[in-house]
Amino acid sequence: MSNAWKIYMLAIISFLVGTSEFIIAGILDKVAGDIGVSVSAAGQLITVFSLAYAIGTPILMAVTARVERRQLLLYSLGVFAIGNLIAVALPGFEFLIVSRVVLALSTGVFVVTALTVASKLAPVDKQGSAIATLVMGFSTALIVGVPLGRVVASAYDWHLIFGAIGLLGLLAMLLILFTIPKTDGEEPVPLRSQLALLKQPKIVTALTVTFLWIGGYSIVYTYISPFLLNVTKLSEQGVSIGLFAFGIASLIGSKFGGYSTDKWGAPRTLVSGMLFHTIALVLLSLAGQSPVIVFPLLMIWAFTAWSSGPTQQYHLMSLAPEASGIMLSLNSSVLQLGMAAGAGLGGVVVEQVSLTSISWIGATGVILAAATAATSFGFSRARSRRKIAESSLAKTSA
Fold it and tell me: Which of 152, 246, 251, 310 is deepest in the core (most CB within 10 A)?
């Protein structure tokens, strides 16, 4: 029970970190209007965050490999608080970019370290659920943090959001200090060794699935607030309610993903989740103008999208159990590259085509991810059956 409580403590901190990461999508139009840039330009704040996260996290995790894990969590939260302070204290688009880079680097170190600690705290047969609990923290950021941020940005000033998150980050350091046990660091793994895992086709294929899946998701989610305002014609209050509904479904989906992975396995959970994810985005394209239909579609989209998160994390760890930390780091980097690509492509689509086109293009990315995953799992099953047959034949011959 004590370890379960510690995992939930990490999930609470993940909520805070997740709010800082996701909030930009919820207030994108507010930030753009305040700093005098277009919505698509403001959307590149997500691209910058994701690129810094993707490139910086593996390097920082290699450099800090020997650092005791609780200490590393505290260091990352301290830098996280500074990143939020920059957004509050220093005006202009340029300093906001600097803030996103600092937040990305600190978030990357925190997330990978927290996932590693949680998987070590959990029993072997509950690692999928432990990862899902941390993902639940991020989902809760969508439920409470993003819609609440939208309300604050509408009523007051979006800078207040980052000020509050920074102060709570300092409080989170105390929670870590008193609830999370010390965990030894590991032998540093050179980047060359980390990248050596990419020589394995099954790992490259799994990471490709992550890229396509999250890229398709990001194309739509980055511009969801402008979509709801301009395509669905929702009011400010309607957008906040829509984001709240999205977040609730994300929470349920992430927990279901962990449960389904433990009960039915990663292949069935991952492929079916992505198929329904695709269907939800296609329906959003077809019925995006109807407020009545959009709300349930948002929830179906969020549920199916977030059910894949813990499943994919668990699947990647199972591909290289002896290097689980590296796999989590690589997956986090590829996930953020997918977010960057999705936000960047979404910005081009919004500028050159239309807001209504983003969900079609997002659906294309997700269905490609589902097809890649299904093909990979099919090859894996075929290889397993062939090995069993060869083993049986060898025993018979003997």
Answer: 310
